[in-house]
């Protein structure tokens, strides 16, 4: 499965890495790709993943996720 999240507050490469790393910490997430210019993160995951857990993990890094 693939889910696209709107992520506010990414401004640099470190932000991109932080968002991707936070998403990948959630069990069942196989890939995460953040796009700074578009303000999105594309999350590839299996069906068992609660996307709210992914959102919370990213928000814990200081970003606003829609």
Automatic annotation (TrEMBL):
Protein's name according to its UniProt entry: Copper chaperone CopZ
CDD domains: HMA
Entry-linked Gene3D superfamilies: 3.30.70.100
InterPro entries linked: Cu-bd, HMA_dom, HMA_dom_sf
Organism: Macrococcoides canis
Domain HMA span(s) in chain numbering: 1-66
Pfam families per the UniProt record, alphabetical: HMA (PF00403)
Gene Ontology molecular-function annotations: copper ion binding
GO biological processes: copper ion transport
């Amino acid at each position: 499965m693939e889910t696209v999240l709107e992520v506010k507050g990414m401004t640099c490469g470190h932000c991109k890495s932080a968002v991707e790393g936070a998403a990948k910490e959630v069990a069942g997430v196989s890939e995460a790709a953040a796009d700074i210019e578009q303000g999105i993160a594309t999350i590839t995951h299996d069906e068992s993943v609660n996307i709210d857990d992914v959102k919370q993990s990213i928000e814990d890094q200081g970003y606003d996720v829609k």
